[in-house]
# Entry
Amino acid sequence: MYIQPEQQPGTEDQVTDWYEGQEKAWGYFPNYAPLFASRPDLAAAWTNLNLTVRGGMDRRRFELATIAAARARRNTYCLAAHSKFLRDVCGDEDSMVALASHPDGSDLDPVDQAIVLFAGKVAVDPAGIDADDVNVLHQRGLTDAEIADVTFAVAARCFFATVLDAGGVEADAQLGAEFAPEIRDELTVGRPFAG
# Structure
């Protein structure tokens, strides 16, 4: 990690809560947690934003959009974490493997492929989104509210991925161990997994 923020006086309880919450969620202390030591208020706001976005939409669709955004931003950490969630929380290993092998979603059904392509474009060229991009999703049956949810998921992921990569945070070795070597290699799109 390139940035080592110091905990600010008077925030000890907030930092402890953040650290304990992250360790409880992952079953180990994740590499990114110390990056927020100087801003536990921001860590709490991020957690709230992420849970709010995720809670307002279909969980599998959230993971597809998040995976596409993480890959487009070349963030190994988020790509691996949300590939794991797609597999384990959503019970969709087939889609996880398909996206690892074919990031354009070409092995997915047309609705999922359209979401993946749209999310990837939003992540790297939001000003390039036009009516045709939105109309593809309309033609696949998504409402404007559902398209907005995909956009919210991508925008939230861009924040977190940017913070982690700019801070030099490598994905946890424990996370990398969750995947077969060939899948782990395909999920390594930016920084490597920690050794």
Observations:
- DSSP finds ten helices and no strands in the chain.
- The domain at 58-187 is CATH 1.20.1290.10 (AhpD-like).
- The radius of gyration is 17 Å.
- The first helix runs from residue 12 to 26.
